[in-house]
Amino acid sequence: PPVILDSSNCIITASQINCSCETVGSSPMLQWLVDGEQVNQSNNIIVLNEPLNSTYLRSIITVNKPQAKHLSSLFCFSFNSVGSAGKQFWVDCQENSADKKLMFVSIATTFLFLSVVCVFLFVIRFLKLQLNNVKNTVAEKRKKVPDKEEDAIYVNTRNLRQAK
């Protein structure tokens, strides 16, 4: 049965993803799957097979970045009449990393904004309570201070009439 060698790997560049899959076995065949679907040659995906002899096969897949933007995995599947082997390559494109960073910054900014709003509301509530306490204290002091009663003035109205 075929065996996929440890030298199989992926290299991500600014414009492409290049993965190589090396397999040994009796007349091995090789097939690539992109996100679980069989690869079709196109302008964005190129597959080159390099058989070195009847027991060794190297296959290189090149995926251009526009196609790779939403790519998450590549799978190398080697098979022959005796059995099969496979290797999964997890690919994290720079655009996906940039999207994750942008999402993190957005979440952090939203959290910071909501925190500032909460602190602002807390300060307003605190100041309102303080103002109410001051008003209540002043009102209580006013209640405690008795109004001065003025001395009653009694006038003899008879005497006032006589004075006129």
From TrEMBL:
Secretion signal: which residues?
none
Keyword set, alphabetical order: Membrane, Transmembrane, Transmembrane helix
For this protein, the record's SUPFAM superfamilies field holds: Immunoglobulin
Q: Which InterPro entries match?
A: Ig-like_dom_sf, Ig-like_fold
| Cited Gene3D superfamilies | Immunoglobulins (2.60.40.10)
- Domain of life, per lineage: Eukaryota
Question: Which parts of the chain span the membrane according to its record?
Answer: 102-127
Task: Answer yes or no on keyword tRNA processing.
Answer: no
Keyword Transmembrane: yes or no? yes
**Descriptive protein name:** Ig-like domain-containing protein
